[in-house]
Protein 1
Amino acid sequence: MSAPALCLEKVERRYDQAGSPLEILRGVDFCLWAGQSVALVAPSGAGKSTLLHIAGLLEKPDAGEVFIAGEATSGMNDAARTALRRGEIGFVYQFHHLLPEFSALENIMLPQMIGGISRREASDRAGQLLHYLGLSARAKHRPAELSGGEQQRVAIARAVANGPRLLLADEPTGNLDPKTADHVFKALDAIIRATGLATLIATHNMELASRMDRRVTLHEGLVVEVD
Ligand code: ADP
């Protein structure tokens, strides 16, 4: 059996606030396998973003190890971490963070071209993803010309454009009305099922969480399963 897409081992993270340490993660153990979708449901301030940033190699833990596809990352230099992140990890945030001066298609092409893929191939894949998400007619539109739900679907397409093993989403529907959130979530769910990605999604939406394979929360700085 292949290694989990993501494993956190005894991960600790604390912040200094007004001189006293704030213990956010106190030895998190958590693994996520290919094809698995997990909802992370916890109150604001519990440390969800911190956990996602550490899992996505955007932030380093104070102690513990992050394994991506079985590879320990703590000893890697910045260039190696960046390469691993670009190739293996996709991010979706609450706000789309699309580049305003580029079209939907170009926004999905860019991460691929940065990864060394030809313009032609990147354009083909971006077009396929837009088609899959029902957005072919919006390919040439800039983000400002798209609805909130469309922007978020383009952000999802961009996150998976390089065929990552791991998708991390930080309240991806948190900024949308319930109907649009449902639509975006279905798109996300379809992509997860079609690609066999491992997915960790922080969300406040219990209905969306109930459709994931597993649900976890953060309790006293540890990841625990809920059900
Ligand atoms: P969540 O995503 O669950 O809302 P966060 O991971 O954003 O939680 O934050 C967890 C806690 O850590 C919060 O109390 C927050 O104020 C604190 N925190 C987050 N980032 C920093 C930082 N860079 N410096 C100090 N405190 C921080």
Protein 2
Amino acid sequence: MAKRVLILNGPNLNLLGTREKSVYGSKSFAEIEATCKKTCADLGFVCDFRQSNHEGELVDWIQSARKTADAVIINPAAYSHTSVAIHDALRTLEMPIIEVHLSNIHQREAFRHHSYVSTVATGVICGLGAKGYTLAIQALADE
Ligand code: DQA
């Protein structure tokens, strides 16, 4: 059966391409979605790509992943630094979890240096821009 990859994006990522381009790059959110879908298709994966500005909705989607996904890639955006609820939801999953950040959060403000997601992630990719999503999908091919 094809591997089902759930790709979750947190708040404000829908504004990519127009938001702080010097930090997050000029690719639009729709372009990143298209690249993720193509990368998944090339590897024979089924891709479910989502974005929400709401913490509870992300928690609901992570809970659903228990039955509907084989791996999760997540850019929790600002919730990385604040959300125990997302941390708790992710730790119920028995599947690979890859955390992605476009920017290198460790080079930025101190409040971005800690992520509640990193301790429950299988791996973390940050600072490589949109390519981080592609690398995360490719990493799942070896799982
Ligand atoms: C981000 C980094 C976060 O600190 C920030 O709140 C974001 C995006 C990134 O992809 O670099 O919204 O997750």
